[in-house]
Each structure stands twice: as C-alpha cells, then as structure tokens.
Specification:
single chain, mainly alpha, 78% helix, 3 helices
Length: 165
C-alpha cells in the first residue's frame, strides 16, 4: 500500500479533528421533538452527542497513532516525539521545553561520564601510588644491599692491602 505524503496525512488529521468537534447536525424541523418529550430527549441527544464525539476523538487518536507508527516503521522506528496542536504559542513553548529537557539529559549523561572517568582516574592514581611506594621500598632495600656490598668490598680491599704490606 502506497503511503500518502505527510501533508496529506496532516490534512486528513486536521479535517478529522475539525469534524470531531462539529457534533451531529440539527434535526430537520419536521422531526423536531414534541414539547412534552423535549427535556428527556434533549438529555438523551446530548449524551448520545457526547458519546459520538468521544468515539470520534478516540478514532482520530487511533488513526493518528497508526499513521505515525506506519511512517516510523518505514524509517526504521527511530525514537521521536510528535505533538499535534493548533496553538502556536503552546507549540513553541513545548519545543523549547523539549530542547531544554534534551539538553539537560545530555548534560546529565556527560556529567555521569565525567564522574565515572574521574573515579577511574582516581583509582588509577591510587594504584600507581601503591606501585610507586612498593618500588620505592624495593629500591631502598637494593640500595641498602649495595651499600652493604660496597662496605664489604671496601673491607676486603683494606684487608688485601694490609696483607700485602
């Protein structure tokens, strides 16, 4: 089935929305209820009208959702948000709030990533500090061993000199 262009879908949705609020047409004058039945019939007609309007509204929402799902499926089901409104001020406010929410989500994600990186770096620094302390202790032991060896060699050299005199 060929999908109609987006403007056509939007036009269909606008027409459905406009006709949903229109309600049922007034009955012809010859079918007007008699005065004795007028209050009961008016309440019944009003209830029927509200029920039909509710059904049309639900049908409109279902069709809009089905259309959006069909179009999204054609484009690989991307994540998106679509708001239909005829109030330009409210639409711009919603766009601004959405951009702000997106930016705050991105900032929160970036902060989380930076904190994780900071923790990783602090752990790495602590590990390197422990390794450095271990190596410093090993170096001190080796220096002490070299000093002891140098003292022993010096003692041996003096002993050899004393014996040769």
């Amino acid at each position: 089935m060929k999908t109609p262009p987006r403007w056509c879908l939007f036009a269909m949705l606008v027409l459905e929305a406009a006709s949903a609020g229109a309600g049922p047409p007034d009955p012809p004058p010859e079918q007007a209820p008699k005065l004795s039945q007028a209050p009961a019939t008016a309440q019944t007609d009003r209830a029927d009208s509200e029920e039909r309007a509710k059904k049309r509204y639900e049908e409109m929402l279902n069709r809009m959702q089905a259309s959006v799902e069909e179009i999204a499926e054609m484009y690989g089901n991307p994540v998106f948000l679509q708001v239909f409104t005829n109030d330009e001020g409210r639409a711009s406010e919603l766009k601004l709030r959405l951009r702000t929410a997106k930016n705050s989500d991105e900032i929160a994600r970036e902060m989380s990533d930076l904190q994780k990186r900071r923790d990783d770096l602090l752990n790495d620094i602590a590990l390197k500090a422990r390794e450095s302390a271990r190596l410093a202790e090993k170096l001190a032991r080796q220096r002490a061993a070299l000093d002891a060896l140098a003292a022993a060699v010096e003692d041996a050299r003096k002993a050899v000199e004393d014996t040769s005199k």
